[in-house]
Amino acid sequence: PVLVVDFGAQYAQLIARRVREAGVYSEIVPHTMAVERVLEKDPAAIILSGGPSSVYAEDAPGVDPALFTAGVPVLGICYGFQAMASALGGTVARTGDREYGATVVELRGSGSLLEGTPERQQVWMSHGDAVQEAPEGFEVLATSPGAPVAAFEDRGRRLFGVQWHPEVKHSDFGQAALERFLYDGAGLQPTWTAGNVIAEQVAAIRAQVGDARVICGLSGGVDSSVAAALVQKAVGDQLTCVFVDHGLLRAGEAEQVEQDFVAATGVNLKVVDATEQFLSALAGVTDPEAKRKIIGREFIRTFEAAAREIVEEAGQDEEVRFLVQGTLYPDVVESGGGEGAANIKSHHNVGGLPEDLQFELVEPLRTLFKDEVRAVGLELGVPEGIVWRQPFPGPGLGIRIVGAVDADRLAVLRAADAIAREELTAAGLDRDIWQCPVVLLADVRSVGVQGDGRTYGHPIVLRPVSSEDAMTADWSRLPYEVLARISSRITNEVPEVNRVVLDVTSKPPGTIEWE
Ligand code: XMP
User: Fold this and answer.
1) Are residues 233 and 348 in the same domain?
2) What is the active site of this protein (predicted)?
């Protein structure tokens, strides 16, 4: 792999993604990992990420110079560039000229890293210190007003560095520089494709599972669907997927999984209709946390019962030994980098599975980013409607009704939600927004007028948001015409609703969901 050494501040994940976009497999390792251990991983190349520190601060993470004599090509970025310069005998100093944001650099020299890109180009800078003098043997490739040495290389030793952030889109030729490093500097080929990922994972799943039985909780979301499709491709009928219809789904969701997904993948599917069980457990409950706990608990019960049934149907001697989870690489990185004790925090992916289920986990997406999961899904023939689905919470519409949940209220919300989704899709906005919860304020009524009569109905809230990762979000500035169409259709077609309102709160302070 190409190893991205993480010096903090969240740059490493983005670098790893860009490397993979260039068709080269990459992994992230913490800067605290000893050089010997880094080299044990047999890296094809190493990239040192940016970070928040100043290289001459007392507790600044340094780089062991041994890293540069192992014969592995290295690219230093921002902090990594300065740490590299300083480890190899160059000078780094505070210039007083902080550069932050879009900056123009001028190329010079005849080096290979920036070959084929313009003499003057815009890059994204974020630094207070700068490399004043390159270490011996290095050629200076670029300068900027705040950075006399803004890029350098020692082609003989295959060591390269840039002060700017090539991984961000604001650096106009950033991806080009990364690709020059990977293909030319390190001599790598772009072989990391969805097809290769599938072949590798299929082999790995077969090796792990043998001829044992496997189950997978299917939510209809992207991750569990693609994970299931991969395992199905690897071990076929040994896999049974369990889809729990808790009655809190949106219009068409159960059908999408039951028909489209099965038709596309040929997976064994066990659909459990647990609507009555969930609705009676939820009857009269208005507190959001209480709702979430009840839904989680009922989900576990239903899933366990389904697993028992699968075992019985398969014959007494067989046990289900493996459970498929759609854990993604960012989950792994965020829970400790996949180094040492694997801290699995992925239960939410499958809708709240029990912590104490005695299964071994199969996690075929553990090395993948979301966009790679989508590419793999498309390659496996998972329907586009599922591959491009926006996030939907495990507790479903149960936490989008403010007030008690019952079948009638669910029907009202389901109708309003279907209209909103239809119109957003028709306007081509699905990929612009992160998701758009539609919320029924079931305990609120307001006066309206329709035809000649007074109405006393419920408001529907539209909550369209844009986000990178759901940790923070902003409300989406949807076109007024689209909002108008959604509003007029909902109030016309759903008799219980006489008012549509727009949530214009960012996260924080609001969360994306209302409960
Ligand atoms: P909040 O409301 O916390 O939501 O801003 C952040 C993201 O998580 C989704 N969400 C959930 N997903 N189980 C899930 O699988 C849950 O219990 C759950 N609650 C919120 C939400 O839709 C948003 O994408």
Assistant:
1) yes
2) 78, 165, 167
The residue out of 387, 413, 439 marking a domain boundary is: 387
* Helix/strand/coil for 196: helix
Residue 50 lies in a domain: yes
Which residue matches tokens 């519409």? Answer: 397
Please state, in angstroms and rounded to a whole number, the distance separating the CA atoms of residues 336 and 318: 35
- Consult the annotation and say whether 377 binds a ligand: no
Task: Indicate whether 154 and 250 sit together in one domain.
Answer: no
80 lines ligand 1 (CB under 6 A): no
- Among candidate residues 356, 387, 418, the one where a domain is terminated: 387
Q: Is residue 509, in this structure, part of any structural domain at all?
A: no
* 202 and 110 fall within a common domain: no
* CA atoms of 337 and 333, how far apart (whole Å): 4
How far is the centre of ligand 1, averaged over its atoms, from the C-alpha of 400 (Å)? 11
| Total number of domains in the chain | 3
Same domain, 219 and 358: yes
Is 78 annotated in the active site? yes
Output the domain CATH number for residue 442. 3.30.300.10
Mark whether 152 and 206 lie in a shared domain.
Answer: no
241 is annotated as an active-site residue: no
Domain CATH number, residue 133: 3.40.50.880
Q: Is the CB of 511 under 6 A from ligand 1?
A: yes
Ligand 1 neighbour 345 (Cβ under 6 A)? no
Sequence-ordered strand ranges (E) for 86-221: 91-107, 120-133, 139-144, 147-154, 159-162, 213-218
Q: Domain range spanning residue 286?
A: 194-387
Q: Is 435 in the pocket of ligand 1 (CB under 6 A)?
A: yes
> Can you tell me which atom of ligand 1 is nearest the CA of 473?
5
Alpha-carbon distance 34 to 480, whole Å?
56
- Runs of H (alpha helix) within 112-173: none
pLDDT by residue for the chain (515 residues), tens only, comes to 999 999 986 688 889 999 999 999 999 999 999 999 999 999 999 999 998 877 877 788 889 999 999 999 999 999 999 999 999 999 998 876 788 889 999 999 888 999 999 999 999 998 889 999 999 999 999 999 999 999 999 999 999 999 999 999 889 999 999 999 999 999 999 999 999 999 999 999 999 999 999 999 998 899 999 999 999 999 999 999 999 999 999 999 999 999 999 999 999 999 999 999 999 999 999 999 999 999 988 988 898 899 889 988 877 677 888 999 898 888 777 666 544 333 333 334 444 456 676 789 999 999 998 889 999 999 999 999 899 999 999 899 999 999 999 999 999 999 999 999 999 999 999 989 999 999 999 999 999 998 889 999 999 999 999 987 787 899 999 999 999 999 999 999 999 999 999 999 999 899 999 99
Does one domain contain both 293 and 147?
Answer: no
Strand duo 239-245 + 74-77: pairing: unpaired
End-to-end CA distance of the chain: 42
